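Q: Okay, next protein. This is PQQ-dependent sugar dehydrogenase from Chromohalobacter sarecensis. I've checked the sequence twice, so it should be correct. Can you predict the 3D structure?
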Amino acid sequence: MMIHPTTQALRRRAPALASLWLGVMMIASGQAQALTPVEVAGNAERANVPDGATLDKRVSLRAPRLISFGPEDEMFIGSQSGRLYRLQPPYDHVDAEISLPGYPHSAVVHEGYLYVATTERLYRTAYSPGQDVTETDFEGVADLPGGSGHASRSLSAGPDGRLYVALGLQGNCSAQHVSQDTTFEDRRGGVMALDPTREAPEWTPYVSGLRNPIGMTWSPQGALYLNNNGPDHWGYEAPPELLVRAEAESFHGMPWYQWNEGEWQRDECIDSAPPAGRDTLAPPVAKFAARSAPIGLTFLPDDNPWQVDMVTAIHGSWATQASGGRATRRPPKIVGIRLEDDGRQGQVIDLVGGFQAESGERWARPAGIAYRDGALYFTTDSGDTGLYRLTP
């Protein structure tokens, strides 16, 4: 990950580039920066981007969600429309569209297989780049806790060769917990791991205490970071959404505790005893405004032009303030996170905005996000849906 000395070294090596982006960095955590309005190539909309950057629509897709890359730079995009999309560079058309049952929210290529996570099952098929794939090629690998409520299942290949899936609680205060002593269908609200090389792969608990973790990514050093969408029963302004750093068996409070006003506070909506006390809970790495719904999350290489360590897609809230209409919804945007040296605290920096008009009307809601060769790619599953690219 990029730390402050690395950023300074980058500036020494590329003074012109550093000067261009210096204004991006010189802000306090959570504050907006000055962005430049530009026309979006490929549609009739406008967006606010860092000075000198361009934004273009690459291709239309139906309700696309998380993005991943496979061998030979193939791009895979899950969706809410029952489709898995594959795109080849330069990602301006769909190379393959695979119909799958359920909600194929995310996919990864790992050790010669294409894996897809739906709400209730992990699927796979043997795979090589460019291969034709149909629904009948997939086999079930392992069931997942299904049911109503938060239905996305975010899939990632870990540095240890295992597969990891993030899944949310059914609701705000569901008595669910990712642990061995919880029934399988109630193992929700965290992360589970699976060794795909075993003859009969099974999910094992890994992280617990997250209401709805969707974005999931690994640092270059192998640390796991997750976005968490907080509850909505505390009102419009609290608690904030969180970015957390997770470790094996770490517990992150929910639904028994919520991070608010700089401390973990007991949530009385659930009366069962919490699995651990608040003194065991680590503070979040960063926070976002309540109800803003962070989704896609990824690390960037040190030499990226945006001079941040991570980026996340802020989906924007469906909720409004009690005294207002749609104009009071949290706006969608793309933000960067610049981490401190130890990777346990971060500064949030606006990178792209302008998706929501003053009236509250939106032309995009970012969902998945990925980085390749200096460009940021993101999907929007609402408005003018599809894949977009931000270039410096």
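A: Here is a summary of the prediction. Confidence is low (pLDDT under 50) at residues 1-29. The longest strand covers residues 364-372.
Q: Noted. On to the next one.
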